[in-house]
Amino acid sequence: MNKISKDIYYIGYIDWDLRSFHGYSTPKGSSYNSYLILDEKKVLVDAVKDYGFDEMLKRIKQVIDPSEIDYIIANHAEMDHSGSIFKLLDIAPKAVVVTNKFGQKHMRLQMHREAKWRIVDDGDELEIGKRKLTFMTAPMVHWPDNMAVYSDFDKVLFSNDAFGQHIASSVRFFDQVEGVIEEAAKYYANIVFPYGNAVLKLLKKIETLEIDLILTAHGFSYRTKKDIAKILKLYSKWASYKADNNVVIVYDSMWHSTEIIANSFSLTLDRNRIDYSVFNLAKTHISDVVTKLLDAKFILVGSPIMNTQILPTVSAFLTYLKGLKPQKRYGLTFGSYGWGPAGYKFLEGSLEQAKINLLDKGKYYQFSPTNKWLDETGNDVVKLIKDKF
Ligand code: FEO
């Protein structure tokens, strides 16, 4: 039995084997955290993926008979939280699904099933006995249907996607393990990066709440004042798109010329005491590159040209980046081409579509760059970067 606090139980599904969450690499797995509140009404907060249903059901049965459930709160219609709701309804027939109008619409479109619905809006309340649950809509803190729930009796915020991490663990709290911040950063960069304004609105809604516990829908939850303050401060920074004066160099190469340019840029940055990271897309997953971009103000993207196009690895990275749209970043493109540089229009255009401000025209060399070109170009790039400090 997994008791979180008085009357609140963990009934989620721990997905030890998950290695990709819609394209985001998850080498440590994940969890879909569900909670059961035992009050005069028996309330389930969020469910789990379809294939996690049996584990969730076993956990529920350790606490109550599932047919006693009165309400299932669906804070988010994405399938990792809603995929098992209708399986549960089959054995909890009196349960009412509490969600907002977008949640209802999205669940209907995904499951093609009906339920007893209770549709709530921002600020609506649900009395369940000693507790009053308050709903806070959080549109686009991942999907239009996201919301969070606050229990005044426990001072608990059920935050759903917000503040989560993709990690599988048998322990539930942030203070019980090391290295969670890095996973929270990776999660933010890969899931929440495009929705900074939405995150800021949610932070505003919760800033006056007294919070003793943030119970997330993924990974670890937060139970100390210090940890709660830490994650709220980081979310505020990330949602404001604040970044440090460091550089992400990301590239792929064919015959090493683009790699030589990347490495030469890195040594010039080194000489100028500017922090940087270098990623070869043939060896690093795109979700790890964008994690580094969470704190870096500059990105240099390099590719050779093959059959008038950039390399597919670089193209895939740019497609991902265009979705994430990291604001307040500066970028530059580079590479080595053979007989025609036409593909670089796509490279530069893609960075612009990702809302990255171009520092200058791309730096390209036909075939193998000379040391003189590398030195002069590296110095030019450093100057362009320093001008934006
Ligand atoms: Fe955890 Fe947006 O789903």
Q: Mind explaining what this structure looks like?
A:
The chain is about 35% helix and about 25% strand. It has about 400 residues and is of the alpha/beta class. It has a 7-stranded mixed sheet with strand order 1-2-7-8-9-10-11. Strands 17, 18, 19, 22, 23 and 24 form a 6-stranded parallel sheet that branches. The longest helix has 16 residues, at about 370-385. The radius of gyration is 24 Å and the shape is elongated. Bound molecules: MU-OXO-diiron (FEO).
Topology of this protein?
Layout: E1 3-5, E2 8-10, E3 13-15, E4 20-21, E5 24-25, E6 30-32, E7 35-38, E8 42-45, H1 53-61, E9 71-73, H2 79-82, H3 85-91, E10 96-99, H4 101-111, E11 117-119, E12 125-127, E13 132-137, E14 147-151, E15 156-160, H5 180-192, H6 196-206, E16 213-216, H7 225-239, E17 244-251, H8 257-271, E18 276-280, H9 286-293, E19 296-302, E20 305-306, E21 309-310, H10 312-324, E22 330-337, H11 344-353, E23 357-358, E24 363-366, H12 371-386
Parallel strand pairs: 8-9, 9-10, 10-11, 15-16, 17-18, 17-19, 19-22, 22-23, 22-24
Antiparallel strand pairs: 1-2, 2-7, 3-6, 4-5, 7-8, 12-13, 13-14, 14-15, 20-21
The structure holds MU-OXO-diiron.
